[in-house]
Design brief:
Layout: H1 5-105, H2 120-144
Helix pairs in contact: 1-2
């Protein structure tokens, strides 16, 4: 099956038009990529210059004091409630252990030495661990509670003025 000259000419023109269209689309896609790259760069600049200082200021004004209060509260609770209770329990357990050992060995006439609770390292580790846990929980509670000032109104986005 052979094509007429007229059809061949029309097909060549169609192929040429398709090639021109393809080249124009490639230029358009290249330009769109350039615009997207520049928009990304500008967004990074705005984030560094505008958003980051506001976020840091809000963190310093709202979150940091809350965390500090939580840590102080946790230390107070650990120092006044947890350490004495743990020390008493450990001391009682060690005394009972010593009495049991003395009975087993038949040394009931000698008073068993009383251990005074956990050492300094154990107390420090317990205090720091509990204080950190309580501080984190308190900070999380403060950060996640409902606060009407933190919500932003849903405004429709508008195109920037050129």
């Amino acid at each position: 099956m052979s094509l007429t000259r007229k059809r061949k000419k029309e097909l060549r023109r169609l192929r040429s038009d398709a090639t021109d269209l393809w080249e124009a689309q490639q230029v358009l896609v290249g330009n769109a990529a350039d615009v997207a790259r520049e928009a990304s760069r500008q967004l990074g600049n705005v984030g560094r210059e505008q958003v980051l200082p506001v976020v840091q200021d809000t963190y310093n004004r709202r979150v940091a004091p809350t965390v500090d209060r939580g840590v102080k509260f946790g230390r107070h609770i650990v120092d006044s409630k947890v350490v004495p209770a743990v020390g008493g329990v450990v001391g009682t357990a060690l005394s009972a252990w010593d009495v049991a050992n003395a009975k087993r060995l038949g040394l009931t006439h000698q008073p068993a030495p009383v251990k005074r609770g956990p050492g300094l390292g154990s107390v420090v580790a317990i205090v720091l661990g509990v204080a950190a846990g309580i501080g984190v929980l308190y900070a999380a509670w403060q950060a996640l509670r409902t606060d009407d000032e933190l919500w932003v109104a849903d405004d429709p986005l508008s195109a920037p003025d050129a």
